Amino acid sequence: MQKELLEVIQASQERGLALEEVCEKVSHIPAEEVMKELIELGKNGYIAMNRKNRYTLSKYQSIYRGRLRMNKKGFGFVEVEELEEDIYISISNIHNAMEGDLVVVKHYPYDNSGEILEILEHSLQMVMATVHHHRRSNTYYAEPDSSKIKQSITITNQKEYSLVEGHKVKIQLETYGKELSGKIVTVVGHEKEPGVDVLAKLIEYDVDPQFNEMVEAQLKTIPNKVMSYQRKGREDLRNVWTCTIDGDDSKDFDDAISIQRTDKGYELMVHIADVSYYVTEGSAIDHEAYKRGTSVYVVDRVVPMLPFPLSNGICSLNPNEERLTITCVMQFAHNGEMYDYRIVPSMIISNERMTYNHVNKILAEDEELVERYKDCADKFYIMEELASKIRYLHEERGSIDFDTSEAKFKVDELGHVLEIYKRERGIAERIIEDFMISANECVASHMKHLDLPCVYRIHEQPEARRIREFASVAKILGYSYKGSVNNVYVKEFQRLLKQAEGSEEFSILSMFMLRCMSKARYDIQCVGHFGLASEFYTHFTSPIRRYPDLLVHRSLRKYLFEGNIDPDTLQEDSEKLQQAAMHSSERERAAVDAERDVEAMKKAEFFEDKIGEVYEGIITSVTNFGMFVELPNTVEGLVHISTIDNDYYTFDNAHLQLVGERSKQTFKLGDTVKVKVKGASKKLGTIDFLVLQSRKAYRKKEEPRESYKSKKKGYSSRKESHKRRKMR
């Protein structure tokens, strides 16, 4: 009924319909029912009354439905699909709404602000909090760990637990509003116990380190080695030279490589652990893997999607142990173009457990390692040769390599961070990346052309408003975005990155480019991958740690290897896969958020005892309240505008810079500055800096002004240098 009423009101457009007109157009529905449904539609933000007391769609009255995203300072933004920009909500207009709530908002277009009219759905059901003792009443209450929730929580079942000050607890909220209340569902531990800080963050995002009893019981039924009956129907590749290449600290190996030259070019085999053989649909392990969606990697631990006897045991392609796999055998021409392939169930024995570090050194002609691996060193040279040709073809079609900075942490046995440094990405890492992309594209193309149900990894074209924002930033950095914001060509992004390669602005340009992109997700519709400039793409190569890869393996097994194609069940299969794809996308986002929060917390903790220390960094973002400075080790901190005390600074939005009113000194994107650590908060995951001097200001003070004579000799000014950099 509501759908019919919406269609009737929508047809009237801005004019709207009076109650009598609505009833007349749906005369088959009793007037009392119509009135009841209209009230419900209004409450849920779908329709509204105009000044003439006529019903219209809410958008004509600037009323929308959307999700509220809170800032740590108390204000928020409502994300609305129909609008290009999120609506700003001040603290006074939030009206007890909380992070993630589905709300009805009144929009004031003149300043893009709004007011929450109705809370339709509370997103936060579970909250991590720290227990505190109220001495006067001798009771306990909880303070939410998230700075986005300002209210304390009344604990309704505190008598069931022996609580003490500082306990970390997970609370299920029962009442909302100015005062929150809820019951404890888990006591994680005391905040001062080693590892509890990270564990609390994981549990906040529904990442459970423990597996249930049903999973443990099923594990006992799975053999820890390959049995003779399991080899039936598999291609025997045990005598083909094979190796895994992973990080130094990796323990789960779900991909291995075999390679050789051929008369026509190269043969590359990408062997992937056959997890689908062991994790069958509907089993206890499958239910738990579906719930988790992905493995989660944080500073000092990994929470696996599959229990360790599988992820590190029988499913892991450990060296010198027979394993069941699915192999993508690809034939490449001399120029790196794939001309043939086959996908088969197989069995392998990995000959070497190689690391990125060792392969990089071999490729750099490290004599000791070349001698140590003399029997197979030539294989890595062939890998580099083929990967470089594949990468060239990918770049030719427009594939973007963002080359973003990632932090690596060195921790002690108690989880305390000893060192933070930037993760280096060498040739070996790129080789494996190129080979995995090739295998993923091969499988996706195969399933798409067969038109069989499959989960794809899709990445859609960026929104026009985000392209405009990026183009503005690129211009400020000295780079010109050429092209339409509505019909985007991926090669234009690639061109800009190549132009900036090697410059100080590269990391900032890359970061803002990444921010303007749509989020990649999982779907059964194969719409391609914009960032990779790929027409067909899926995730096939990591079934140990990603549930969608496991789903792709099941599709291969069911439709290709077993030939079980029943036209009557294909639609049902597609619907199930789409639901699983959406769930996997949600769990991926939760894992990313958990990893980001833990990383921010540990970075802040590391800097809590470094107050007063001085570092050099680059300005990566400028706002009306200050600027963010990133250090070489990826740690980022805020220089608040109020702390720059040598002048009064204002925010120049057009050029994304802070400008001194008297001195005209500027702080803009890409400037190198010296900063001193002012403060750090582990709870908030924030670091505050004081700016000491920018590199530009330092040069003005130390370097003598160039004379006309010196310029004639060929010396160039900073301004001229900047012009040349813009032309590169």
Number of H- or I-type helical stretches:
20
Helix content: 25-40%
Instruction: Give the strand order of the largest sheet, numbering strands 1, 2, ... along the chain.
Output: 3-4-5-7-6
User: What is the molecular shape?
Assistant: globular
Structural description of this entry:
By secondary structure, the chain is α+β, with helices and mostly antiparallel strands. Helix content is 32%, strand content 27%. It is built from 20 helices and 33 strands. The chain has a five-stranded mixed barrel with strand order 3-4-5-7-6. Strands 8-9-10-12-11 form a five-stranded mixed β-barrel. Strands 13-20-19-16-15 form a five-stranded mixed beta sheet, covered by helices on one side. A hairpin with a 3-residue loop joins strand 15 and strand 16. Helix 11 (377-397) crosses helix 12 (427-450). The longest helix is centred in the last third of the chain and has 38 residues, at 570-607. It is globular, with a radius of gyration of 29 Å. Residues 697-728 have low confidence and may be disordered.
Give a brief rundown of this model.
The chain is α+β, with helices and mostly antiparallel strands and 728 residues long. Helix content is 32%, strand content 27%.
